[in-house]
Amino acid sequence: METIGFLGMGIMGKAMAINLLRHGFKVTVWNRTLSRCDEVVKHGASLGETPAAVVKKCKYTIGMLADPSAALSVVFDKNGVLEQICDGKGYIDMSTVDADTSSKINEAIICRGGTFLEAPVSGSKKPAEDGQLVILAAGEKDLYDQVLPAFDVLGKKSFFLGEVGNGAKMKLVVNMIMGSMMNVFSEGLVLADKSGLEQQTLLDVLDLAAVANPMFKMKGPSMIKNDYSPAFPLKHQQKDMRLALALGDENAVSMPLAAAANEAFKKARSMGLGDLDFSAVHETVKHTKTT
Ligand SMILES: NC(=O)c1ccc[n+]([C@@H]2O[C@H](COP(=O)([O-])OP(=O)(O)OC[C@H]3O[C@@H](n4cnc5c(N)ncnc54)[C@H](OP(=O)(O)O)[C@@H]3O)[C@@H](O)[C@H]2O)c1
């Protein structure tokens, strides 16, 4: 496969780009804060000065950016993707955004003759490092088929979900469920502790019960040690809850549990925990006052 461009060297983008390099892909990277490219360059990546410079050099360019405003800025701003996208080039946005954002990017890219795929991912830092993401792609099927070799390296499974917007929606539904689960898990850990039970024993019991799942297994031990080193930053989880609630508004779906979970993530952000792992929402439950 040709050289792949990669825009956004955050937690996920860096792990994914290094994984592509390890599997023999040539990768050209760019990040708003250029110094965050250093590690990937040490692994053999080339550096692009701007998103436009990366797209100029590469037939396929992937974006992995914080949120809708970052995803739009990298495409539409000066020196952005749009300046160089053209017939024969594809842009793949793997950021978690809403369907409207994806559609705006799709339309602009098609107007310039390029092709577009949205492809948000399920899975966090470790699955990104290990090529174990779940890829939720939608948009131009030909482009999907062309970049499958890269998706096969990045993920354990790719879904093609049809028209642009379906990937974004699927990702938001998944993260809405995950964020709500994280809140009730935190409440359970605190309830066990306050009522005189060992939290580790609760984790052992949960792991054997019908509600066992990889997230409780992975996050539980660090949460009971108050270790919230960021794999999935809490500010991004709150963004996903907000976007999922907006999707609920559009479709008149009542989601009181997700709304409550969103409040808890907002509270955590107001406590200065936005850059920690999303499991730090646990702190909002621990710090509920008792009389
Ligand atoms: N971490 C996870 O577990 C996980 C899992 C699945 C999906 N996601 C999604 O994947 C995306 C990236 O997540 P992450 O964890 O890698 O986040 P991150 O570590 O916070 O990285 C965010 C990236 O976006 C860039 N960025 C932010 N604002 C920008 C702007 N206005 N213009 C250009 N670039 C901008 C940052 O550049 P700077 O370095 O210059 O700030 C950085 O490269 C998010 O949409 C997130 O929801 C994350």
UniProtKB/TrEMBL annotation:
Q: Where is the active site?
A: 171
Q: Please list the residue ranges annotated as the 3-hydroxyisobutyrate dehydrogenase-like NAD-binding domain.
A: 165-282
Q: Which UniProt keywords apply?
A: NAD, NADP, Oxidoreductase, Stress response
- Cellular component annotations (GO), alphabetically ordered: cytosol
Q: Does the keyword Oxidoreductase apply?
A: yes
Q: Which reaction does it catalyse?
A: glycolate + NADP(+) = glyoxylate + NADPH + H(+); 4-hydroxybutanoate + NADP(+) = succinate semialdehyde + NADPH + H(+)
Q: Which GO terms label this protein's molecular function in UniProt?
A: glyoxylate reductase (NADPH) activity; NAD binding; NADP binding
Q: InterPro entries, from UniProt?
A: 6-PGluconate_DH-like_C_sf, 6PGD_dom2, 6PGDH_NADP-bd, HIBADH-like_NADP-bd, HIBADH-related, HIBADH-related_NP60_sf, NAD(P)-bd_dom_sf
Which residue ranges does the record assign to the 6-phosphogluconate dehydrogenase NADP-binding domain?
3-162
| Similarity comment | Belongs to the HIBADH-related family. NP60 subfamily.
| Job description of the protein | Catalyzes the NADPH-dependent reduction of glyoxylate to glycolate as well as succinic semialdehyde (SSA) to gamma-hydroxybutyrate in vitro. May function in redox homeostasis and play a role in oxidative stress tolerance by detoxifying glyoxylate and SSA generated in glycolate metabolism and GABA metabolism, respectively.
> Entry's PANTHER family?
GLYOXYLATE_SUCCINIC SEMIALDEHYDE REDUCTASE 1, OXIDOREDUCTASE GLYR1-RELATED
Protein name per Swiss-Prot or TrEMBL: 6-phosphogluconate dehydrogenase NADP-binding domain-containing protein
